[in-house]
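EI: anyone free to look at a 321-residue chain?
SC: sure, send it
EI:
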Amino acid sequence: MSVIVPCYNIESYVPETVTSLVNNARDDFEFIFVEDRSTKDKTYEALLTLTKRLRNSRVIRHEQNGGLATARNTGIDASEGRYLTFLDGDDWLAPGYLADLVDAVERFDVDFVRTDHVQVTGIERTVHRAPEGRRHIALDPRTSILPVDDTTMVDYPYAWAGVYHRRLLDKGMLRFHDGLKTAEDRPWIWDLHRRADSYAVASLRGVFYRRGVASSLTQIGDVRQLDFFRSFDLVLAELADDPEVGRLRKKALRNYCVVIAHQLIGRGRFERSIAARLKQMAAEALGRMSEDELEEALVGMGEERVYMLRRIRGGMKGVAA
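SC: here you go
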């Protein structure tokens, strides 16, 4: 198995991340660290030093920063394992977790396996379950996309919460859209659930996902956050020739509206010019949706979000909260 670890400005977390991988190492596992030209610390130097004790590991350094999607693709291109998994550079794994992943994907004989995870905020730890109740059986991935108004597996896009068979690459899946700075996993997870043949959900909780990291894009209000528009536009474009586009587009539009509303409500963290650009791009995205599509997408979304989206687009007085 190949473990792909993109790293950017996470020097202080490298010891814990690498130690967790040492505690998972096997002779048939490789560890590929992609250092995405850190600018604020010595992440690269820390990786070179600490990975000396991690067998079958290597560090690849980008010539220039490319973002998370591109860093993951670099790791994918360099990988040789039958199975691939991901770990963000500021997160860590429980001992033995990688062996459990391989056991699961081989036991279920599927294209990919998705798992639960543990969210870490300061000293608080919370288990987050993958939103699929059918566990430990092979499933058709398409059956986990709908319903529109409930949380489903395309709302759980975390690439690091699972393991993926290399044959997906041969079918033109698994790579990310180069250059996406945020929401890179949205078109990625939609593609997997639309086009892969089989998957399973395993009740494994060995990934520890760190929230509130200062260098994380979720904590930084800059123009890179606006890449979510491109991400969702890619989802919609790739749905265009799907045989079930009529049903699936409704789900994608609802997801899009949820994220637009979330960003608008939190726009206070952006500089004024970027907040203005956010509002403009939101109005344009909402304007590309028909009135009927918007009405259906916003039903039951909650008064604050519906009000926000009504105000940005205008002319949607009949939409129910």
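EI: The chain has two domains: 2-211, 223-318.
SC: 👍
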